[in-house]
């Protein structure tokens, strides 16, 4: 069983604290994604699990065992990094087989396992090539094959798809997910790309400034973001956020108002996703605005509307393009409103 537990982990570099009292449990076979903006401490957290960095305080357990004092090579995990870390002078087969070689697996067995791993990621025809003779996507698959050639307890992946172009990324994302299902190996995956996180994760942990902001399934996080940071980070486009005032069951904004029985008095932020807004005839909606932009995205059109001091995105059908400067009225779906307090913490729903 490869569960992982981080127990009150703190990491300081000199005077700088980059991970603050982080506690997290990862279930056996879970695909956990650490998501957050650059510098939020994702990689540092991963490196501590890997054994490449030591926590300043706190305990890390893999299975039932405390591993703080264990060297990286003795933690029985495999890592895939953004730059792949392939050895340029070795062939694809030698790169894939390297973890077996250092563990002194006999040659014949090694060859069989290298071939099996290579077939799994569709590299069987390229075993004699060197990394310089491969495309980015092929190199990425060599790094993956090298990770799966053993059956480690744990996979650690740090932005493994970020060097690929958008199309290849989508393909590799699906392959990665299948591979992890088939191998049934606990995986911790670091990314700053929310779409990657949404599509791959069983559970997402969102970090900011070395602290966990929210942990939940992709659907939970999308439906009920814990605070305005998460709301603004998840979704494309992210949730619309509007500052206003709560007063007697009404949210009051410079461009209109919305009845929300539960709204508290004082400063609040209203969140509405772009798919929960309709553009209606003048005077029929909650807020008035002016079309700022109209972008056809294929199956949808994204209309940007200036609403008082805010720019609100509305998703409409492919035929819904609008003229810039057109006055509009916005109607919000009253069942899909999110209310956050003055500190940005979720209040409703
Ligand atoms: P990115 O997506 O850019 O890789 P990240 O979320 O993975 O970001 P980390 O690499 O964990 O972030 O870095 C967290 C913070 O710790 C950053 O402010 C970084 O500058 C700092 N940091 C990381 N490693 C060191 C180090 N060895 N010495 C000093 N500061 C460090």
UniProtKB/TrEMBL annotation:
<dbReference type="InterPro" id="IPR027417">
    <property type="entry name" value="P-loop_NTPase"/>
</dbReference>
<dbReference type="InterPro" id="IPR047641">
    <property type="entry name" value="ABC_transpr_MalK/UgpC-like"/>
</dbReference>
<dbReference type="InterPro" id="IPR003593">
    <property type="entry name" value="AAA+_ATPase"/>
</dbReference>
<dbReference type="InterPro" id="IPR012340">
    <property type="entry name" value="NA-bd_OB-fold"/>
</dbReference>
<dbReference type="GO" id="GO:0055052">
    <property type="term" value="C:ATP-binding cassette (ABC) transporter complex, substrate-binding subunit-containing"/>
</dbReference>
<comment type="similarity">
    <text>Belongs to the ABC transporter superfamily.</text>
</comment>
<dbReference type="GO" id="GO:0005524">
    <property type="term" value="F:ATP binding"/>
</dbReference>
<keyword id="KW-0067">ATP-binding</keyword>
<dbReference type="InterPro" id="IPR013611">
    <property type="entry name" value="Transp-assoc_OB_typ2"/>
</dbReference>
<keyword id="KW-0547">Nucleotide-binding</keyword>
<dbReference type="GO" id="GO:0016887">
    <property type="term" value="F:ATP hydrolysis activity"/>
</dbReference>
<dbReference type="InterPro" id="IPR017871">
    <property type="entry name" value="ABC_transporter-like_CS"/>
</dbReference>
<feature type="domain" description="ABC transporter">
    <location>
        <begin position="4"/>
        <end position="234"/>
    </location>
</feature>
<dbReference type="Pfam" id="PF00005">
    <property type="entry name" value="ABC_tran"/>
</dbReference>
<dbReference type="InterPro" id="IPR015855">
    <property type="entry name" value="ABC_transpr_MalK-like"/>
</dbReference>
<dbReference type="InterPro" id="IPR008995">
    <property type="entry name" value="Mo/tungstate-bd_C_term_dom"/>
</dbReference>
<dbReference type="GO" id="GO:0140359">
    <property type="term" value="F:ABC-type transporter activity"/>
</dbReference>
<dbReference type="GO" id="GO:0008643">
    <property type="term" value="P:carbohydrate transport"/>
</dbReference>
<keyword id="KW-0813">Transport</keyword>
<dbReference type="InterPro" id="IPR003439">
    <property type="entry name" value="ABC_transporter-like_ATP-bd"/>
</dbReference>
<keyword id="KW-1003">Cell membrane</keyword>
<keyword id="KW-1278">Translocase</keyword>
<protein>
    <submittedName>
        <fullName>ABC transporter ATP-binding protein</fullName>
    </submittedName>
</protein>
<keyword id="KW-0472">Membrane</keyword>
<dbReference type="Pfam" id="PF08402">
    <property type="entry name" value="TOBE_2"/>
</dbReference>
């Amino acid at each position: 069983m490869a569960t992982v537990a981080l127990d009150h982990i703190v990491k300081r570099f000199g005077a700088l604290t980059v991970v603050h009292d982080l506690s997290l449990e990862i279930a056996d076979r879970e695909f956990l994604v650490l998501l957050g903006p650059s510098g939020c401490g994702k990689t540092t957290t991963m490196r501590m699990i890997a054994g490449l960095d030591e926590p300043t305080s706190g305990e890390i357990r893999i299975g039932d065992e405390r591993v703080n004092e264990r060297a990286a090579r003795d933690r029985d995990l495999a890592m895939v990094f953004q730059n792949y870390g392939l050895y340029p002078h070795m062939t694809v087969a030698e790169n894939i087989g390297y973890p077996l070689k250092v563990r002194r697996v006999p040659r014949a067995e090694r060859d069989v396992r290298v071939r099996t791993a290579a077939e799994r990621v569709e590299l069987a025809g390229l075993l004699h090539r060197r990394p310089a003779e491969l495309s980015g996507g092929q190199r990425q698959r060599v790094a993956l094959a090298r990770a799966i050639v053993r059956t480690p307890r744990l996979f650690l992946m740090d932005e493994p798809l970020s060097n690929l172009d958008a199309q290849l990324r989508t393909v590799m994302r699906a392959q990665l997910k299948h591979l992890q299902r088939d191998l049934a190996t606990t995986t911790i995956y670091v990314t700053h790309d929310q779409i990657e996180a949404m599509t791959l994760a069983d559970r997402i942990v969102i970090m900011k400034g070395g602290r966990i902001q929210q942990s939940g399934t992709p659907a939970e996080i999308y439906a009920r973001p814990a605070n305005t940071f998460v709301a603004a980070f998840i979704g494309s486009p992210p949730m619309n956020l509007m500052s206003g005032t709560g007063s007697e069951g009404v949210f009051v904004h410079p461009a209109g108002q919305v009845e929300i029985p539960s709204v508290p008095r004082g400063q609040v932020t209203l969140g509405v996703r772009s798919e929960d807004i309709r553009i209606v005839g003048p005077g029929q909606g909650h807020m008035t605005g002016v079309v700022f932009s109209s972008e056809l995205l294929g199956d949808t059109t994204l209309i940007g509307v200036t609403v008082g001091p805010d720019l609100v995105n509305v998703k409409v059908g492919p035929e819904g393009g609008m003229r810039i400067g057109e006055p509009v009225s916005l109607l919000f779906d009253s069942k899909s409103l999110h209310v956050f307090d003055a500190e940005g913490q979720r209040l409703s729903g």
